[in-house]
Amino acid sequence: xxxxxxxxxxxxxxxxxxxxxxxxxxxxxxxxxxxxxxxxxxxxxxxxxxxxxxxxxxxxxxxxxxxxxxxxxxxxxxxxxxxxxxxxxxxxxxxxxxxxxxxxxxxxxxxxxxxxxxxxxxxxxxxxxxxxxxxxxxxxxxxxxxxxxxxxxxxxxxxxxxxxxxxxxxxxxxxxxxxxxxx
Length: 183
Prior knowledge:
This protein is of the alpha+beta class. It has helices at 14-26, 28-31, 45-52, 107-121, 137-145; strands at 4-8, 57-63, 74-85, 91-98, 127-133, 149-160, 163-173.
């Protein structure tokens, strides 16, 4: 029986970087059509340790019944909030992936919902944005299921799998409360 939990990553724990590197290496081929071209060094614990300390916030889906690649089990998915801006803007960008072996189990949806909860309740963010390749219908379904709405298409938005690719843009408004007063 599989026991998967979602938890916030601990960038100070070296085992997190090793577990993330192992997960990314394991999924390298399946993620290639959705990712920028990556240097070999990207798949090392050292590179992932640097990424974990880049200021973004990450959540991991962890299969606790698998080998102990990281502190609590095997990383089988991840979501990241990056470009976090506070003040009157209070926005961030969402990215996520799941292990090819665990596809279709609702992990991306669970990760996205947890990130949205934390973004609202813990960070006080107003809005999260995300983008998908035009033909990434599975990711688009995840976003719509999680309350995101499509707001447009960005031509040649990101360099993915060797070419500049168009992306559908989505957003989720988390609340309409005013931000805390500025200092």
